[in-house]
Amino acid sequence: MPPETLLIQALVGVSSGMILFIVASGLSLIFGVLRVINFAHGSLYMLGAFIATSIGAWLASQSVGFFGALLIAPLVVALIGALLEMGLFRRVYQREHLLQLLLTYGLTLIIADVVRMGWGGEILRLTLPEFLSGTVKILDRRFAVYNLLLLAIGPAIAIGLGGLLRYTRWGRLIRAAVDNAEVLGALGIDTRRVYTAVFALGCWLAGLGGVLIAGRASVSLQMDAEIIVQCFAVVVIGGLGSFTGALIASVLIGVVVSLGTLFPATAGFAQALPFAVMALILVVRPWGLLGKPEK
To answer: Is the pTM of this model over 0.70?
Structure first.
């Protein structure tokens, strides 16, 4: 197989990995701070995608519609996430993971029914602006311009999250809440607001990922299950609480799946390859690539 084809396919995989990283980073953030396994994270990603298609159709203009969806849909998902955190998730903090899974799995069923009632069973897509719809030549091979946008957005989100958590007051409060929430509360900080803001940010990332995938692939009712399984694989491979590890794991999964579809021997089970990689990494490093073993 020509090396140019392998390179383009690898770049396609990296662009897919950028969307996966954005969604998985939200899941990792919520679990790292709140210690809640949010199985409904994929449903919020799906909701963001459907909301984006409606906003794009409502605003009519392709450019205004896309960027309007990119701005509004994640904020709507973040608001929904904040309401869910205040109304439901606060009740399961410090509870056994089984209750958390039951709650979040129930939410996946509810959100799926809401989406079905609101948008029906149609397969939708967000129309891209003309300047993002074309292709460019890389080594005499065509590469989608939209994928270039994804290649830029992923690292930007990673740098932004890292800077937010490391250099801002809010980031210091988040790290303090992870280390000892009781001491933080004793200092007069309302930890509930911190938790709500963290949950909303995680949901905003899920909604952003939904908007980005809506401009690249079809939006359907089955998309939540696929993304949440891959997100858990990213969190496990990268290491709990490590955004850098999540970025590496997302790129690894995207490239493995993308290249796996090229070869007849692996095309039939390309979607299962990341889990083979996950199993291999867990044998060598049970705490993930950049995670830390629990003491």
So the answer is: yes
